[in-house]
User: What shape does this take?
Amino acid sequence: MEKIQEYIQKLAPKAQFEEGGQYPTAIVESGDLRKVAAGLKEKGFDYLMCLTGMDYKDSFGVIYHISSSKEKKTVIVLKVNTTEREEPVIPTVSDIWEIANYYEREAYDFYGIIFAGNPDMRRLFLREDWVGYPFRKDFVADDSINPIPTKVPKPDDYESVPYYTIDKDGKLVKKVKSLFENKDCIVNIGPQHPSTHGVLHLRTKLEGEIIKKIDPQFGYIHRGIEKMCESMTYPQMLYLTERLDYLCGTMNRHGLCLCIEKAAGIEVPARAQYIRTIFDELTRIASHLIGWACMCNDMGSITAFIYGMRDREKIMDIYEETAGGRLMINYYVVGGVAQDIHPNFVNRVKEFIPYMRKMIEEYHTLFTHNPIAKGRMTDSGFLTKEQAVALGVTGPSGRASGWSCDVRKIEPYAAYDKVKFDEVLHQGGGTFDRYMLRLEEIEQSLRIIEQLIDNIPEGDFRAKVPAIIKLPAGEYYQRVENARGDFSVFIKSTGDKNPYRVKFRSPCLSLVTALDPMCRDQKIADLIMISGSLDYVIPCIDR
Amino acid sequence: MLELDKLVELIQTFLSDSIGIDWLVKLIEYVLIGVGFLALYAVLALILILLERKICAYFQCRLGPTRVGPWGLLQPIADMVKILLKEIIHIDKTDKILFKVAPFIVIMGSFCTFGALQFGKGICGIDFNVGLFYMIAISSLGVVGILLAGWASNNKYTLIGAMRSGAQLVSYELSAGIALLTMVVLSGSLQLSDIIEGQAKAWYIFQAPIPALIAFVIYLIAGHAETNRGPFDLPEAESELTAGYHTEYSGIQFGFFYLAEYLNMFIIAGIATMVFLGGYQPFQINAEWAEGFNEVMAYIPTWAWFFGKVFGLILLSLWVRWTFPRLRIDQLLKLEWKILMPISLLNLLLMTVWVLIFE
Amino acid sequence: MEVKDIKIKSMKTEDFKDNEYLEKYIEELQKEGLNIVTEKLDDLINWGRSNSVWPFTFATSCCGIEFMCVAAARHDFARFGWEVTRNSPRQADVIFVSGTITYKMAPVLKRLYDQMAEPKYVIAVGGCSISGGPFKESYHVVNGVDKIIPVDVYVPGCPPRPEAMLYGMMQLQRKIKLENFFKLPKRPNISNGQTEEGGTK
Assistant: This one.
C-alpha cells in the first residue's frame, strides 16, 4: 500500500491522501489526473471498477474505484474535484480505461460534468432535449420544464455526437461529429424488440446481413433509483435494489445490506449468513436458468425456453414457502433476514438438488449437443481477456474469457469463505464458452447449497438493529457477485438517516458495451445469440 | 363409404337435365369444385392450427388450448372469427398495390398446389400428364408473394426477411426438385395418378430402398425448408426480425400468410406421401402368407390412407420444428449447396443405375 | 381459496368475490329484448374476439419475467388460447404494459399502441404502469400509463403473480363480451367509476 502511495506522490506531488477509509484514497488535482491514471494503468491497475459523479454542493467531483486484474484484492480510490459550477470540466480517462467512455457519459448526464477529450459526450440515459442535470442537489423535478415527451426523436438526434476539447489557450471548445454516414443502412433493433432482454435500443449499421457498427442507446427504463435513494432511509432503499436487476434481486439486496451493516457495525448472526448464502445461490441458479432459456429462445428453440422456465418454478416454490414472494422476495433486511426459514425449506432444497442435476443432463441432450446450436455457438462472439478487462466485463462473461473475477473468491462475504467451490474458468471467450460456463456454474451453486443446507446453525436469524439506522459519516463500498458480475454499492453518508449519495455499479453496462467489438462483421442472427449469451438485464443498467 | 364418384355423377346428371346448356353446366361444376376445395382448404387449416398448438404444448409439458369448446376444439374457429373482423391497416409510404397483392399471391400459390393433390382414389381437382412438374412450378409462386410483401412494406426488417426467404427458397427448391426427379426416374411418369398407381404393389420407398430413402430424407429436409418453418424459419425469425416479411400486415392479410404457412406444410407432406409413400395406396406385403393382411389393409378407404400418412409426416415436421434451434443463413446455404445438393445429384445417378439394373 | 377480511380502503371485501357483475350487467341491458339477428351475430363476434386475444410481447422490466412465467409450463395461458404472442404490433390484440414506463419510453409506447389494429386492448400490469408504483417520486417515471394510452384492465402487484395476470386476462375477456359490433356508438359505458381489478393480495 505504502508503495502505491509513494508512486502516486511521485506522479502528482500535490496529491493528498485520506486516512482511515476502506481503501487507500488519493485526492489529485484535475491537471494531474491523466498522469496518475496512466501511471496506475502502467502499474497493472487495468480495471476501472466504478466511476461516481458527486455533487458536494459547492463543488463537483468524480470518484474512481480502480482495481487490477492480477492483484485482485487491491482497490485504489482516486478523487478529483472542480469548484466550477457553471461548466465543470474534468479531463477524460476514456483513452486509458475503455469503459470510462460510458461511465463519463453517465456522470455528464447526471451532473453536467464535461469530460474534456472524451470522444462522445452525448447524454447516456436522458433524452437530448432534457433540461437540467437531475442528480445535482439543486435540481427540481418539474413537469412544466420537462413534460412527458410526445414525439420519438429523429435519427439526427441520435447521430450528432458533441465532444469537447481544450485548445492551446486552455479554453473549452465544443465540436460536433456524426456517428454514421448518410448512405449507411441503419436498423433500429429495439427499444421494443423481442430479444433485446428489456428496452435496449441498438442502432445497428448493416451491410446486407453483416453488422458493421453498433451504437447502444440506454435510458428507456431510467427511473432515477439512485436519486430516489437520497431521500429515503436505509431500510427503504432495500426495496429498490431488487428492482434494479430483478433476476438477481436477492444478491443486489445482499450487497446493500452488507454495505449498511459494515458501515453501521452490525454483526450478522451466522444463521442469517448461511440462509443468505443459500438464497443467493438459489437466485443464481434461477437467473442462469432464465439466461439459458432466453438464449435458447433467441436462437429459435422455444421448447428449451419453456423447459428452463419450468425448472425455475421449482425455485420459485421454495422462495414462496419461506419468504412469501416469487420474483421479488423482499427477504433480506439490515441485520439478517425478515423471518426464519420454513420447516419444509431444508427438505425441499434437498429434493431440488438432484432434480436440477438431472435436468442439466436433459439440457445438454436437448440443446448443447445439437449440431445446429453447437455450430452456431462455437464460431462467433469472441471477447479476449484484455478486452474484457478494459471494458470491465465481469461475471460469467468475463470468466468465459479467462479473467478470474469472482468476488466470492476475491472478497468473500456471508458464508462463502466456509464452503468449497470452484471458480469456473474458460479460456476461449466465445459464445459457447459463455453458454457452457453458465450451466457449469449452476452445478457449482448446487455444490455450495449442498454443503450448507445440512449445517445451518441454530440461533437468531436477525440481529438487533436500531429503529432508525444512521451511518457514520464516510464513504462505503461493497462488492458482491451477482449472476451477471461484480455488483457494487457505494454509499456516501454525512451521518444522517438518509444517504448523501448512492451509486450502484451495474455489471450489465459493461456487457452491452462489449457488444460492439464482439459483433463486428458477424450476422444479425449472431447479434441476437451473443446478446443472449451475455445475459444482460437492462433495468440494471438504466437504474 | 365415401362414394364420391356417384355423387359427382348425380350432380352431373341433375345439372345437365335441369339446365341443358353445356358450358353453363361446366361453369357451375367448376365453381362447385372450387368451393368444395376452398372449404376443405379452410377446414384443414383450422385442424392443422389446432393440431400444432396441441402437439407443441405436449412437447413443452403444457396443456394447450382447453377452454374454448370441448378440449379447446373450437379455438381455431374463434381465431378465425377474430382475424376476419380485425382492422386492416393501410400504411403510408408503402407500395400500395404490391402490398395488397402479395398475400393473394402467396395464398394462390398454395391453393393451386392444393388442388392438384390426390386425396383418394379419384378425389382430386386436376390430374394431368405433367402433374408433378406443375406442382413444383406452382408451389414456388409463394416466394414471389413473400418477396413482394417484404419489399412493398418499406420496412428494413421485412426486407431482410424477404431476401432471406428468396435465398432459401431458390436454393432448397433445387434439391427438392432433384429428389422428386429421382422418383420420376423410377416411376417413368409425371402424372400423379400414374405415379400412385405404380405403387399399388409396394410403395416406391420399398421398391428401390436405398436411392428412394435418400431422396425421401432429402425431400423432407428441403420441403421443410420451403415451408419456412423452424429450424428454417429465417424469413420470419421471430426473435431476430420481429415477424419477418409479414411484420406490417394485419387482419385477414396476415391471416392469409398464416393459412398459407400451415397449408404449405400439408402440401409438402402430401407430395412426399404421393411420391414416396404410395399416396392413397394401402400398405401391402408382397407375399402369399400376407393375403389376409393385404385385404384388411385394402378395406380401409383410400382417403383415410392418404390423410393418415400425411398427418404422420406432419407430426414428424412438428417434432423437428419444436426441437431444433434456428439455423443461421450461412449454415442454411452451406447445408443446401455443400451437402444436400451434391448428395441429391449423386442419388439421381444412383437411381438411374438402379433402374437400369433391376428393371 | 377463500378470501377473508382484506382491508383496502376503496374496495369492500365482498367485491373480491364479485366476478360476474359484468355478466349481470349484460343481462340487465338485454332485458327489454333486442334484435335477434344482430344480437346473435354480436354474440358470435364477441365470443371469437374474447377467446382469441393475442398478446403483444412487450415488457420493460420486472413484470415481464412474470409474463414469461404465465407463458411457460406451470401457468400456461395457452389454455385460454392466448399463447400466440405476436412480436409485431400490427397483429396483436392486447398489449400488456408490464413494467415501468419512463419519459423516454412514453412516446415509444404510444407509437406501438397506435400501430396496433382495432380492436385493441391494454392491460396495465403492476404498480409501475398503474400509478408509477415504487417509483412514483422519480423525476423520469410516468405516473400511470393511462396518461398516455387508454387502459382496459389494471392488474395490481409488484410484480403481480401469474395467477393475478390470468385473472386480469379473464376480466378482459368478460369485458370484450360487452362489446357491441353493430351499434358501435351505443357501446355501454362500463367505466362509471368502477374498474376491474385482477389479483387480490
Notes: The domain at 2-156 of chain A is CATH 3.30.460.80 (Beta Polymerase; domain 2). Chain A touches chain B through 31 residues (CB under 8 Å). Chain A has a mean pLDDT of 86.
